[in-house]
Amino acid sequence: MISRWTTAVIDTELPGGWAVARSPEGFLFDDNGALFPREWLKRQDLSILAEHGIGHLDGEPVYLLELQGTQEIAGCNWKGLRAFMLEDDHTLYKVLGYAAQIGTWAREHRFCGSCGKRMSQVPRERAMYCDACDLRHYPRISPSMIVLITRGDEVLLARSPRFVSGVYSTLAGFAEPGESAEDCLVREVREEVSVEVKNIQYVGSQCWPFPHSMMLGFHAEYASGDIVPQEDEIEDAQWFNVHNLPPLPASRSIARYLIDLYVARRLGHAEPVLPG
Questions:
Q1: What residue numbers does the annotated binding site for substrate cover?
Q2: Where is substrate bound in this sequence (predicted)?
Q3: Which of 71, 74, 247, 274 is least buried, going by the fewest C-beta atoms within 10 A?
Q4: What's the predicted TM-score (pTM) here?
């Protein structure tokens, strides 16, 4: 049976439910996974910064315990979100991905950015409130574009010094204030590889909880220019033939989807589905 996950604001005063525990180093897990009986988890003397009800998994409430740091719990270990992304349980990854975004927001908004006073959670709403300033802060979403540039049977892929060794991916960057997604795309491509593009087409989007991005995926055709990698940002960038691609990003990423989609269309294969 496929598990059903829905996000929701849940009252933390209610008893029971499941919970995930998150620290800056990742999520707590044991042999049964990363979901624990909530009441058991809260009896473990954890250094809890914040607790938020984040949704329902198969009808059961799920809560996030955002922790000060990692703690030793018998039979348990800690693992980062990217490691969960590479595993088979996509529903669990969606739960943890959402929890990571709420946890980051909760950690960074304990105090008002205007006056410095402690903020409080707003009942029945995903918001933090400053009584002194009458300000509400909602979870942040940072829009960014990601684009596959193509030239016939060739795709332009690049690698950052931060990537896993050997892996090449699509170009990406965050939108600046006042920019459209298309403006951002053109600017980022120009900055990162000194290439001009044309025929920009929107493909799809994906929540990217590292830590709070909304990736807007595009396809664009090469227009002009020679590849000149941006110093300190791009380690290497090349044209690759669809028949001879380098190691690529993880299969659940929108970067991989953009590549796989173009290759499938070019070669007449069945089109992949964008991971939810």
A1: 82, 125, 138, 206-213, 255
A2: 82, 125, 138, 206-213, 255
A3: 74
A4: 0.90
